[in-house]
Structures are given as structure tokens and as C-alpha cells.
Specification:
The chain is an alpha+beta fold. The protein has 2 domains: 133 residues, no CATH class; 289 residues, no CATH class. The protein has a 4-stranded antiparallel beta sheet. A hairpin with a 2-residue loop joins strand 3 and strand 4. Helix 2 runs parallel beside helix 5, helix 14 packs antiparallel against helix 15 and helix 15 runs antiparallel to helix 16. The N terminus is likely disordered.
């Protein structure tokens, strides 16, 4: 272990051999199973998988590799794995570093996990493959990725506020937000959401008179939704419902803090420009007709490919999931409260995504679910509500914030219910 100390520290690993037999092989000559498990688990968690799903996957990999027992503990920033092997009991701890969402990389990690569960790859080769996956260059160069941010913002604008002014400004601000996201300066990562919201807010509120009835706050939210931690909050809801209290609570609080930082940036820009409280109120406007949100779904799909490297073969599947989720949400909102419409959309969307993922080559479900969640998550309402809360309108903002949290939780429960239905059906069929 000491001989590999420098290497392990460079990778963020801490290892401990708990074998009592001194004649047992030392970790540097033993299998790489524990290192592989923590590296694989870290990548799966970074791709958006819930803690429960990662634990199940790592246990399956451990069994396939010959471990009698594999125990996994997931923390907000760490992953602990313990295995029982012929050489004794061993423990590995990985410190997880945040990384950007990349669908091409997520697909490669999922494929590796599936092969490892089938014992088709050794732990040592798996470690090397993970290093290669981490070193994968983005599918597109920087200008294309930044343009993808503009496309994503336009797609959200078409769904959120379909006016000509909103679409144009969303495209411009989408380039700005995506460009700032590409700045890889560790010291700025903590303040980057606030800084981005502040700069974008200065631009939008500076043109508030020209925007007029187009609702400046929704013009601003369309590009900033790229910074919304919707997936983090949603995954934490699933984890809390499944009993993963530590990691679930950690992710939930971190997600809310990021939303609050965005709201602070918006209000700071409004105060500097001198915008009144009325400008921060939500006043939806739709001038393109009912076809605009449908077009927005397909524009979103294209934006995911350009921004985060969605393979072309997945775009039709993502479109199906998005259209179904949107259709169910709209239909449910006509019969139930808006807060519950997302629940029904998620209940239908999740089994569809799981079945499509398995039907077409064992794809990772989250790659199909994440674009669908962009259709369901009320990121705009949450950001607007927190902006009003910081401004001082606690009664209105508190109601909007509570509505947003209720909707997010309902979507998370919908995903949990939908996935449980599929897994229960599979067990019934197997028996």
C-alpha cells in the first residue's frame, strides 16, 4: 500500500487492508477489484444514477468478480466499498470530484458496468478503461458546445415564453451561459452560478424597457435553466424515499443552495439596474400558438446533442420520451393540480424510458430520463420564487417555492413509482 501511496493520492483514493493474515497477498499484488468498484461507482453517481442503483450495480460486479460479500456506502462526496476476498477483508474509499454532464461518457461507463456485471472484463482492465473514459475528449469542439447552449436556451424559451423577443435573447444569453460554464477555473466554480446569473441579469434588465410585456424574468430564466440543479434535487428525492438519508439530504441541500445562488445573482443585477419588484413577478406570455412547446421539445433534443454529446442513435428515443412526458403532463394538468401533473408524467415516462433502454441494447435509463426531466421540472418557477423571496416578497415567493418543492418531490416519487412498477413486473414474470 505504501508503495502506491503517491498514485492513490493523485487519484483521490484511500485504501486499507484489514486482513488479519500477514501472509496474505498485499494490495499491490492483489486484485484491483476494490479500486475498480470505487472508480466505477464514482462515475455512475456522477452520471446521475441514484445511490440505491449504484449499490446494486457494484454488488453485482463484486459477485461476478468472485467476492463473497460486497458492501457499499454512498456519501455526498465519497464512496466506501468493502469486500471479502480470499486474501481477507479490504476497504477502499474514493473522494468524488464533480464533473460536467456528458452523455457520451455516461454511455461508455454504463456499458463498462454491464460488462463487469457479466464478468466480461477484469477489474484491472476495468480500471484502465475508466481512466480512458475520463480522458475522452468532448464529442464536439468548444464553439459547437457553446452554440449548443444557445439551442438549449431557445428550446426552453419556446416551452416557457414563446415570443420573438424571448427566443432571440435566449439564444444570445445561451451563448453567454454556456461560454461561462466552459471556464475551468477551480477557484471560480463556487461563485460561477451567481456570477453567471448576475451578468445575464444585467443584460436582460438593462433591456427591460425594450422587452416590455415579454416578461423579463422568463427571458432570463430560459438560459439560466442550464444551471438549475434539477437532476440533483430529483435524484435526492428518490434517494430520500428509498431510505438513503445521508446522500439524499446532502444532494437536496446542495441543490437548493445552487438555486439560491442563482436567485441572489438575479436580484443583485435587478438592484444594480434599479428594476422594481414588479419586474420579478411571473407574467407568462405566449404569442406563437400551441405548436411552440412541441417545437421546443425537438429543439431541446438537438441542444442536448450539441451541448452534451448525445449520440445520434438516441435522439429518436429521447424525442419519444419527451413527447410522451409532455403529453401526459398536459393531460394531467387538465384534471389535477399543476403540482401533481409532473407526477403522472414521470410515472408514465419512467417505465417507457426503462423499456426503451433495455430494448435498444441495454442503454442507461438516465440518458433517456434526463432530457424528459427537463420537460417536467419546474426550474423556472423555482428560480422566480426564490428571486422574489430574496427581494422580500415572502408571502408570494413562499407560496411559489412551496409549490416548486412539492412539484419536484412529486416528480421524484413518480420516477420511483414508475421504476418500481417495472421491477415488480419483472420479478413476477421471472417467478
Amino acid at each position: 500500500m505504501e508503495q502506491r501511496g503517491d498514485e492513490r493520492r493523485a487519484l483521490g483514493w484511500i485504501g486499507k487492508d484489514t486482513a488479519m493474515d500477514e501472509s496474505a497477498p498485499r494490495p499491490d499484488s492483489d486484485s484491483e477489484l476494490e479500486r475498480f468498484l470505487v472508480k466505477l461507482g464514482s462515475e455512475l453517481l456522477a452520471s446521475g444514477e441514484s445511490a440505491q442503483s449504484v449499490v446494486e450495480s457494484l454488488r453485482a460486479v463484486g459477485r461476478a468478480a468472485g467476492s463473497d460479500r460486497t458492501e457499499v456506502l454512498v456519501f455526498p462526496r465519497a464512496l466506501l466499498v468493502e469486500t471479502d476476498e480470499a486474501s481477507g477483508r479490504r476497504v477502499e474509499l474514493a473522494i468524488m470530484e464533480p464533473r460536467d454532464q456528458r452523455f457520451d461518457r455516461d454511455l461508455a461507463v454504463h456499458d463498462l458496468a454491464v460488462r463487469a456485471e457479466r464478468a466480461e472484463i477484469s477489474p484491472a482492465d476495468g480500471c484502465r478503461e475508466i481512466d480512458e473514459i475520463r480522458a475522452m475528449p468532448p464529442r464536439y469542439r468548444l464553439p459547437v458546445r457553446v452554440f449548443g447552449g444557445a439551442v438549449l436556451a431557445v428550446g426552453v424559451a419556446l416551452m416557457l415564453q414563446p415570443t420573438a423577443m424571448t427566443v432571440v435573447l435566449a439564444a444570445v444569453l445561451g451563448v453567454l451561459v454556456a461560454g461561462l460554464q466552459e471556464i475551468a477555473v477551480p477557484e471560480l466554480q463556487v461563485i460561477m452560478p451567481t456570477l453567471t446569473a448576475f451578468v445575464a441579469g444585467l443584460i436582460v434588465f438593462g433591456f427591460a424597457d425594450a422587452i416590455g410585456s415579454a416578461n423579463p424574468i422568463r427571458v432570463l430564466v430560459a438560459p439560466l435553466i442550464m444551471l438549475m440543479p434539477g437532476l440533483m434535487i430529483l435524484t435526492s428525492t428518490i434517494e430520500l424515499a428509498a431510505g438513503e438519508m445521508v446522500v439524499g439530504a446532502g444532494r437536496f441541500i446542495a441543490g437548493l443552495m445552487q438555486v439560491l445562488l442563482l436567485a441572489v445573482g438575479i436580484v443583485a443585477a435587478a438592484n444594480l439596474i434599479g428594476i422594481g419588484e414588479q419586474t420579478l413577478l411571473d407574467q407568462p406570455v405566449a404569442r406563437f400558438g400551441p405548436w411552440a412547446p412541441v417545437l421546443g421539445l425537438f429543439v431541446l433534443n438537438l441542444g442536448f446533442r450539441l451541448r452534451w454529446g448525445t449520440p445520434a442513435r438516441l435522439m429518436p428515443l429521447i424525442a419519444v420520451v419527451q413527447v410522451v412526458a409532455y403529453g401526459v403532463e398536459v393531460a394531467a394538468s387538465a384534471s389535477f393540480s399543476p403540482e401533481m401533473s409532473g407526477f403522472f408524467g414521470a410515472v408514465v415516462m419512467t417505465p417507457l424510458a426503462m423499456l426503451l433502454a433495455r430494448r435498444f441494447g441495454g442503454l442507461p435509463t438516465m440518458v433517456l430520463l434526463i432530457p424528459g426531466l427537463w420537460v417536467l421540472l419546474p426550474g423556472a418557477a423555482g428560480l422566480i420564487g426564490l428571486a422574489g423571496l430574496v427581494e422580500g416578497s415572502t408571502q408570494v415567493a413562499g407560496d411559489v417555492l412551496m409549490t416548486t418543492l412539492t412539484t419536484v418531490v412529486s416528480i421524484g416519487l413518480g420516477v420511483l413509482v414508475g421504476s418500481s412498477v417495472v421491477r415488480t413486473g419483472e420479478r413476477v414474470v421471472q417467478h
